[in-house]
Amino acid sequence: MGSKLVFLWKRSHKGLVLTLCLLLVFGLAAAQCAAPGAGEKETVKISFIGPLTGGNAGPGLGGRNSFLLAIKQKNEDPNTKYNYEVVVIDDECKPDVGVQAALKAASDPEVIAGASHYCSMVAISTADTFHNQGMPSMVWGAVLPDITYGNDYVEVTRVNGTQINQNQVHAQMMWDMGYRTVSILHDTTDYGRGHLKYFSEAWEALGGEILSIQGVNVDQQDYTAELTKIKAENPDFIYFGGLTPSGIPIRKQMLKLGIDAQFNGTSGIKNEAFNEALGPEAEGVLCFLEGAPIDELPGGQAFMEAYEAEGYEEPPEAYGPFAYVAGQLIVDAIEKVGPDRAKVAEELEKNTKDLDTIIGKVTFDEYGQNIVPLITPYVSQDGKWVSWNTSEYAGGERSLVPAK
User: Fold this and answer.
1) Residue 242 belongs to a domain with what CATH number?
2) Does residue 314 sit within a domain?
3) How many domains does the chain contain in total?
4) pLDDT, tens only, 328-362
5) What is the C-alpha to C-alpha distance for residues 34 and 32, in angstroms, rounded to an integer?
6) For the whole model, what pTM was predicted?
């Protein structure tokens, strides 16, 4: 009797164990299937900061659209490890607003890195913030050299070029065309003072004469006093180191005063708003921009086709391709080292070498600065910015204001 009871207990015990095992297996499987988000990619936040309102909104919106396009394409790639969410913040091209924008992005621990700033006076103001917060920030449009060369911050890199080469090419071209005297206007921000410094050095090294240097405020609208002085100087050309909101009234007022001089700007006026606001009065104005025209970039045609397919209302503008590449580089770094700010910053600055992009090869030097040796002169022709080499001016069919 005792042996029979032992047998029955063993059999029931085995059944109980088997039943418990089956319940455990099926329970775990069911729990796994029912778990929310199972099998989905982890979401990683990245930021985009630029001027989305105000007088410099054109380049900012073009940069934003281009950045969003790059991230959309990355999210559509089934091979990416993460899903990327973009936090878009307006810096209004104002340093104080820019610092608040940088703090907003950096204070969110889920934001791993970002592309930041078109305006140099904003980018130079936020460099310390990104460094102190340990957040990687890749400049996509600002050109003041000190943004990268004025510090040793691993967090701050730049995919576009700087004012140095821009102004060297600018000065050399004007000298080669026979211009010898210049009157300089510049805004009094870090951006304008930077252009003043690098153009003046390049121009005087060639033997050119600077008749006067005048600083103007970024919110100034009446330039009669400055331009009246320039008219009396009778320069070969006027050099303006500033942005479109100032460049438009300066150009209008110089023509109204009957100043017979060539008018030249920097990359700061290279946007569609300049031509749209001035109409025929923009004709023959020169400006200089790092990199090749979009239609001459290695991936320019594919970029424009994808951009237009998205139906963006605003054009990509001059720095859209740089913002697009910034988005790609940031995502690629996160994919490689994971969503860790310190590791991403190190990866971007130290290992961005000879990478193929739509703007050509990208290589960061020891300061995190992309080496962009090519500078393209542009001329306003029939309401559009046309690269100098393809323009009717270069072909001799039209003439700039001749040197005196």
Assistant:
1) 3.40.50.2300
2) yes
3) 2
4) 999 999 999 999 999 999 999 999 999 999 999 99
5) 5
6) 0.88
